[in-house]
Amino acid sequence: MKIVATDRKGAEHIIEGRDGWTVMEILRDAGLPISAECGGACACATCHVYVEGGWYEKLSPPSEAEVDMLDMALAVEPNSRLSCQITCAPELDGIKVTIAPE
Amino acid sequence: MAAPLETDVIIVGAGPIGLFAVFELGLLDLKAHLVDILDRPGGQCTELYPEKPIYDIPGLPIVTGQELSDRLMEQIKPFGAQFHLGQMASALTKLPDGRWKLSTDADIEIVAPVVVIAAGGGSFVPKRPPIAGIEAYEGKGVHYAVRKMDVFRDKNILIAGGGDSALDWTINLAPIAKSLTLVHHRDGFRAAQHSVNQMRELVEQGKIKFEVASVKGLHGADGTLEAVTLAGTDKQERRYECDAFLPFFGLTIKLGPIADFGLNLHENLIPVDTAKFESSTPGVFAIGDINAYAGKLKLILCGFHEAALMAQAAFHICRPNEKLRFQYTTSSSNLQKKLGVA
Q1: What is the complex's ipTM, to 2 decimals?
Q2: Using one digit for the tens of pLDDT, what is the confidence trace for B116-163?
Q3: Which of A101, B162, B270, B340 lies 20 to 30 A from B127 at CA?
Q4: Are B132 and B238 part of one and the same domain?
């Protein structure tokens, strides 16, 4: 599966995802500037992304813990998600995410 | 400013690795002072995930961030380390006698022959909303904390956020504000339920306002705030008059003044050797998440190992004329005395 990620400068990166990995891990592994301070524990809101292009609706809805943690994220929009809570899977091939400002 | 404090080792950062360093140094009779910007020990463990379980601490099949910090504090108690909490290590200078002087933003100075940077990713600082030009208002029109409530008396206050700080300050500042509006991106909060109830009562009584909206721009001059641009769920932007804006989005980690300590840095990390975990500046060590070396893993257990090796090297700097006696806590009555168990 592919992830189409837009960085904070607006550049688009097409990255190969891996089933079972989180989108945060894929972005971090690709060297994109996502801080993910807590390491994927849904405890810091620093892996905040906007899910674009109709993909937000295709994801399973955020857990209560994620919705709560998004309260600590900056510049939250209706399509905001924490990328550590999105798991790569074949049906997400082509998912578009934009890294939120920090 | 008071006379500088003198010790053997200054530890920057009171996270798990800084705390365990106290233990390893203590076994060698080296005294330590710790500085941390947070107001309690534990670093990321207690700030980011106090309730979350950690499963990879050797010998502790499951332990939460808070428990790990508490157990480490118990373990290092015999060594009487001094903590300087709630202050940022702001400058490091070399003294003519070869020792180091660390200054904090609370005007404390500590002098020691060895400095250990155990600062993780750096300092926890308030998250700054990505609003153009916000820096110019900080400290005048924009505040990330309330130090003196009186500063906000008779002001038109705008608070943003949905956590406990946002709700607590909404409730506490409401009685003294001229007007107060809370904005948040949703009509739901991660704050304590009784605070949310209290806030909603104030809204019903007409004492404050709550809006689902976010701040998009700031207006004013010379740091004095006159108004903000708000955008609600309909995305329509409008001007909202206020003279104090308090965004509460928790903390994030920035390297901070360590960048100006004069140490060799590589991508915000301090390269070290793997025998002593010393930086390229003699006498300054780096352990835990902040260091870099071939094969580095950012794991708490690796930081513990780094602390043990650092302590051996620190001993030779602090006690150049003494022989280091390597002993085991299991068998050494000498060590057991230090630990207060023999």
Answers
A1: 0.86
A2: 999 999 999 999 999 999 999 999 999 999 989 999 999 999 999 999
A3: B270
A4: yes
Which among B52, B128, B214 has CB closest to A43? B52
Q: pLDDT tens digits, residue range A29-73?
A: 999 999 899 989 999 999 999 999 999 999 999 999 999 999 999
Q: Which amino acid is at B17?
A: I
Number of domains in chain A: 1
Q: Which residues of A touch B127 (CB under 8 A)?
A: 72, 74
Whether residue B211 sits in one domain with residue B162: yes
B78 near B26, Cβ under 8 Å? yes
State whether B140 and B242 are in the same domain.
yes
Containing structural domain, residue B33: 5-125+252-338
CATH, residue A9: 3.10.20.30
Q: B330, exposed or middle or buried, with CB in 10 Å at 0-12, 13-18, 19+?
A: exposed
Q: Which of B205, B228, B249 is the last residue in one of the domains? A: B249
- Chain A residue with minimal CA distance to B250? A72
**DSSP per position, B166-182:** HHHHHHHHTTT-SEEEE
Contact between A52 and A96 (Cβ < 8 Å): yes
From B44, B130, B163, residue closest to A74, measured CB to CB: B130
One-letter identity of residue B53: P
